[in-house]
Design brief:
Blueprint (H helix, E strand, L loop, with lengths): L4 H14 L4 E6 L15 H12 L3 E6 L2 H9 L5 E7 L7 E3 L5 E9 L17 E4 L6 H8 L6 E3 L2 H9 L5 E5 H10 L10 E3 L5 E4 L1 E5 L2 H14 L4 H8 L2
Parallel strand pairs: 1-2, 1-3, 6-7, 6-8
Antiparallel strand pairs: 3-11, 4-11, 5-8, 5-9, 5-10
């Protein structure tokens, strides 16, 4: 029997590529229920990201930092981190974004005793509004903040904003509704405020979530792999299961 060594070599090469598992490193933050080092399975968004990379034969390692540092570490040239998540879509030269990996309902937390009323985002200029440092909100809201039409108070966490709303120090704060509900159910610092705050009935928008990959060759490589992996999994089912 005569062997075709050329074909054998080709099959070996193809097999070695398909089984060559790599590890990708991303940064994230403690933003329950989407991500967090102390959460079961480390949060709904982490579950989705791990499943997408696993579907492509790769392993995801996530390190958690305060948000500003998570973004900075992922942006540094030559960093071991290929990107960060979960993030909202925004214009950037530093990052290139994945396909959507789930959704989050972005709205406003308000004081039950003094709910706010608004029709257009510009109406929020009449209120004392809270936002979290370095968070992307909505394009319209961020443009109004940049132009100083809206002058929000900036803090370092959603939890601080909820406490400020409960105490009447601000009228409302931008927050994801899933994050708000999780915090009220699980934060010891907010136990006494549960009956003082609520989500405003009008959402800013349902925001899609993404991985922001560094805009270089390595980041783009992992972006392509990740997007292919996302197409192989049931994102909605995974998100629903881990946002309970």
């Amino acid at each position: 029997m005569k062997f075709n060594y050329a074909i054998l070599g080709l099959l070996f090469a193809v097999g070695s590529v398909s089984t060559h598992a790599e590890t990708v490193n991303l940064t994230s933050l403690d933003w329950a229920p989407y991500s967090g080092k102390s959460l079961e399975n480390r949060g709904a968004s982490v579950v989705v990201a791990q499943a997408a990379f696993k579907a492509m034969g790769h392993e995801l390692v996530v390190d958690f930092f305060p948000w500003s540092r998570a973004v900075k570490l992922a942006s540094e040239p030559g960093s071991k981190y290929a990107g960060y998540f979960p993030e909202y879509l925004y214009e950037s030269n530093e990052f290139t974004f994945s396909a959507p990996m789930g959704q989050g309902p972005l709205g406003l937390v308000e004081n039950i005793a003094s709910p706010i009323s608004w029709a257009e985002v510009s109406d929020l200029a009449k209120y004392k509004l809270g936002v979290v440092q370095d968070y992307v909100n909505t394009e319209e809201l961020d443009a109004l903040i940049a132009s100083k039409v809206i002058k929000p108070q900036v803090v370092t966490s959603d939890e601080i904003n909820v406490q400020k709303v409960a105490g009447g120090r601000i009228d409302a704060a931008v927050i994801d509704a899933n994050v708000f509900n999780y915090m009220l159910a699980n934060s010891s610092k907010l136990v006494k405020n549960k009956d003082k705050v609520q989500m405003n009935t009008k959402l800013l928008m349902n925001k899609e979530l993404y991985v922001a990959f560094r805009n270089d060759a390595d980041g783009k490589k992992w972006q392509e792999i990740y997007n292919q992996g996302l197409a192989k999994i049931d994102i909605d089912a995974l998100m629903a299961e881990h946002l309970k």
